[in-house]
Structures are given as structure tokens and as C-alpha cells.
Amino acid sequence: MRILVLSDSHGDVFSLKKALDMQPGADMVIHLGDGERDFKSCRIDKPTIQVKGNCDWGSDLPAFTVTQEAGYTIYCTHGYAEMVKYGLYNLQSAARGYNADIALFGHTHTPVTYYEDGLWLVNPGSIRNGDFAVVDLTPKGIMPILLKLR
């Protein structure tokens, strides 16, 4: 299973659509906030998950969600509530509280893949800056891949 992971579009629908066009084989798309309206305007015809970011004012989206995909538990958040700009401890603690295998987060606009003690932390960066990620879930493991728009 391939998941396209996007975050922090901040009004840049063009870059969102370009990332979607670059990954037509993705089975699911996750948007990690700061672009609720941008993402909804793309009208994606596959399963999606969306959480609210600190700039998604008035949003009814959840601050985080936990999903089971291909046998893995995924914790999805924008990251502001976990204060990821000041370190990843709160994010790790929250994700581990759900026995997550992967914690997906945005907010910092900095792409990151980090693995520690059975937990992947993945920040796709800001799609507005051309950064995004895919996460491949296979029976043999998890493979996060950071990508750039071309």
C-alpha cells in the first residue's frame, strides 16, 4: 500500500495537484493540516484523511487521528498540539500511547524521516515549498520516502 502524505499547503492548490499527479498509484492520501480548503478543492477519488492545522481557523477537523492501514497503526497530526517545533518527545509519547508504528506530522515545514524503537516519525515538509512524502506499507516493513516536486 502506498500513502501520499502532504502538509502545509497554505493556499497552494497548484502544488497539491502536482503532487497528486506525480503519484497516481497512491492508494490513500493524507493531508496533515494548514490547507483544509486547498485539499478539499482537489476532489480526490480515493480514501483520504485530513487533520486540522493551526492555520485552519474554524475547522471542524480533528487535531489528530489514528488509523489502521495494511496492518500498521498510523498516528496523524499537524504537530502544533504536540509542540513539534520544540522537539519530538510529545509526538513520540502521543503516538506510542496508541501503539503506533508511524507518526505523521507537519507544522515545521521541514522534511524528516526518523526511526527509533519501532516508531517511524515522518514529516513530509511543506508542499508549498515543493516537499511531500510517500509511505509504502509492505508485509516486510515500512518505507517512508521524501520527495520534491519537479
Report a brief summary of the structure.
This protein has 150 residues and is of the alpha/beta class. The protein has helices at residues 13-22, 36-40, 89-97; strands at 2-6, 28-31, 48-50, 64-69, 72-77, 102-104, 112-116, 119-123, 131-138, 141-148. It has a single domain, classed as Metallo-dependent phosphatases (Purple Acid Phosphatase, chain A, domain 2, 4-Layer Sandwich).
Written account of the structure:
The chain has 3 helices and 10 strands; from the N terminus they run E-H-E-H-E-E-E-H-E-E-E-E-E. It has helices at residues 13-22, 36-40, 89-97, and strands at 2-6, 28-31, 48-50, 64-69, 72-77, 102-104, 112-116, 119-123, 131-138, 141-148. It has a single domain (2-148), classed as Metallo-dependent phosphatases (Purple Acid Phosphatase, chain A, domain 2, 4-Layer Sandwich), CATH 3.60.21.10. Strand 1 (2-6), helix 1 and strand 2 form a beta-alpha-beta unit.
Number of helices: 3
Strand content: 35-45%
Number of domains: 1
Give the quaternary arrangement of the chains.
Answer: single chain
Question: Would you spell out the secondary-structure blueprint of this structure?
Answer:
Blueprint: E1 2-6, H1 13-22, E2 28-31, H2 36-40, E3 48-50, E4 64-69, E5 72-77, H3 89-97, E6 102-104, E7 112-116, E8 119-123, E9 131-138, E10 141-148
Parallel strand pairs: 1-2, 2-3, 5-6, 6-8
Antiparallel strand pairs: 1-9, 4-5, 7-8, 9-10
